[in-house]
Amino acid sequence: MDGRPWGGAPASRAERRDRACDPGAGGVDGRVAAIDSELVGEQHVVDVLYQRLDELRAQSRRRLAAVRRAGPSGSPQNRSERDAFATLYEDRVAQLESVEDRLAFGRLDLRDGERRYIGRIGLTDEDQTPLLTDWRAPAAQAFYRATAAQPDGVVRRRHLVTAGRRVTGLEDDVLDLEALVAAGVDPATLAGVSGEGALLAALGAARTGRMGDIVATIQAEQDAVIRSPLNGTLVVQGGPGTGKTAVALHRAAYLLYAHRRLLERSGVLLVGPSRTFLRYIDQVLPSLGETGVVTATLADLYPGVEARGTESDDVARLKGDAVMARVVRRAVRQRQRVPQQATRVRVDGRTVVVRPQDVAAAIGRARRQNRPHNQARVTFVRDMLARLAEQYVQQLGWDVPPEDRAEIVEDLRTTREIRIALNLAWMPLTPQGLLTDLWTKPHRLESAAPELSARERALLVRPADHPWTPADVPLLDEAAELLGEDDQAARAQARADAQQREAEIEYARQVLRSTGAGDMVSAEALAGRFASSGPRLTTAERAAADRSWTYGHVVVDEAQELSAMAWRALLRRVPTRSLTVVGDVAQTSAAGGTHDWAAMLDPLLRGSWRLAELTVNYRTPATVAQAARRVAVAAGLPVSPQTSARDVADALTLERVADDALLAPVAASTADKLAAQVEDAAGAGRVAVVAALGRAAEVRAALAAAGRSVPAGDAVDLHAPVVVLTPAQAKGLEFDVVVLVEPTEVQSASPGDLYVAMTRPTHALHVVHARDLPAGFGEEI
Ligand SMILES: Nc1ncnc2c1ncn2[C@@H]1O[C@H](COP(=O)(O)OP(=O)(O)OP(=O)(O)O)[C@@H](O)[C@H]1O
């Protein structure tokens, strides 16, 4: 044991090894010797794999150095080619560096005698003989899926336990003992029985504040989700800790591997609930060798807008309602107006009249084009100027040649009164301008939103200098879509860019043919890195900066939090509807979020989505998970059925304090004490205090008074041994121990919040309360 205060802590490496090496019949000397010799054999294989990895790293570094040595001379084409190759080798070096930890973690023994090692990446020797199979390759699938009932040609699955480059333990999962014995394997050399040790060790390990990958221990139901086909929308529902985030990230890595050509070009977007959460997961994809995924919160989706403002839940809920799509649409249409009266304007001694009937006809024609407001406005203005020019010409009384007519049109266009009249009829608009007008001018909101009550409209009113909020972002996006830009120049540029890009891809193909680097990069990706002048952005960078970028695949985590308007903004970015949507409708806390996937997604996706469920909680000890479940059920949440992978002794502690004023100091001192207990020799082990907003500030102050500074807000430092979070901030994260302060207070904001808070710990939940606990807490089911 490692001295941690609860039972069931992870076994030491030596213990694991002993346990793994003991198939149940007691420690017979001969058996131990046989297993030791297996370990020696595996060490030899692993040595060969690392040696190959080192060679490949050295090779890529040499190539990189050679490219850099060539210096900045030569034609622009030569320079761009060199830059592209430099980036390529840099990426390759980074990829090879990132797979150091647990390079190889498994072995499959197949019925035909083949032995296949499974690892983070695929490796071959100089003669292209396979040494290591990428976990994502079809040939690795049986490692995660094969069972004794359906062995899929596998007679034995072996987990390799490694520390650095050393093999420290083995676990065998025998799927076909007869076949194994028939192949001459001595049963005495079988290590362990089921592969459970590797999983349990991973689950019990102290947390570091950063999520790790699960590539060595993906379970069968998770693997089915990870390898599900790219097409269409896959919704993954699962209770807390069932691995939804882990699965979503591994699926992104899998899809990039299986559909590299398509996805490298169009990009993959991963949407998470907060920046803290994105920091928490940001190591996982790189550790799987993938760096090109764009990550964002919904509030970041509109380039150029920092949505850091806050507002009440009622306002956020209203802004997220699907009805707002109609409101924004109407607000745009209302800026296309037929004036009540004619406007007479003097131009060069003649009078032209902006007549309501002409404006009505021009608006009608422009609208029939079905183009966004600002683009259709070009048609409207052209039409009106032609009508006014006609009036002008009529007054001249002679035939005007076309070139003179153009001059007259230009004169009319630049006449101030005419500009004002035409703008009043069809105002050029920005999304920001449109929305600011709606929130700051009650008469505009009233005419745009008749379906809202006076009370609801009053809620939306705010001062002009109010910062943008996350719930504004989907509305800005909606407005941008309806307004469009005057994009004639942009479209011409896009056509030219597309031609240029085709030429670059063809050139990249030739380069790849002549250099033989085709297995490292596709022609499309290489072309993306060619720069004829200045640095060219990667797909991820281009995509992140472009509101109208459409991705090849979008992964949404904590998707239950998205409002109907947020979904509309997101779906615009993936017209193919190739999405992975993971979440738990019992954990919803956002005002506009959902408790029912079908109710939210059916109208948006016309019923076309498929559901997968994850059912095993890998995070929370059974005692805590059951208590959380009872409380959630009592609160009426739609809780998914789940079982816990493990339990831990003394996982739930309830501590009642005499009055409210003691909550913060007791929570702070408890957290402080537990932090010292959970920290292991390597500095891992994390404690979180989770409390409602105001209470969290009190706990922070109490910790600061005791000498522990705990930053607030978006600056949450996940590396700190103790953090203080609101339930919304804790969403998606996990800690060794959670100190939960006054559950009734947390629940009163949202029952989903309490469910989230209770299910964050991997080892123990310590509850500090002054009031009675919510229903379900203490009872047995
Ligand atoms: N197959 C596995 N092997 C090892 N660890 C796993 C496995 N599946 C999940 N885990 C671990 O379980 C924990 C919970 O996983 P994850 O955060 O992905 O769950 P979640 O379903 O997204 O939870 P929540 O809904 O509460 O945010 C993580 O530490 C993850 O690494």
Automatic annotation (TrEMBL):
The lineage of its organism: Bacteria, Bacillati, Actinomycetota, Actinomycetes, Micrococcales. The keyword Transmembrane does not apply. It comes from Cellulomonas phragmiteti. The keyword Nucleotide-binding applies. Residues 1-27 are annotated as: Disordered. This is DNA helicase. GO terms for molecular function: helicase activity. Residues 217-621 form the UvrD-like helicase ATP-binding domain. ATP binds at residues 238-245. Keywords: ATP-binding, Helicase, Hydrolase, Nucleotide-binding. It holds the Pfam family UvrD_C_2. It comes from the Bacteria.
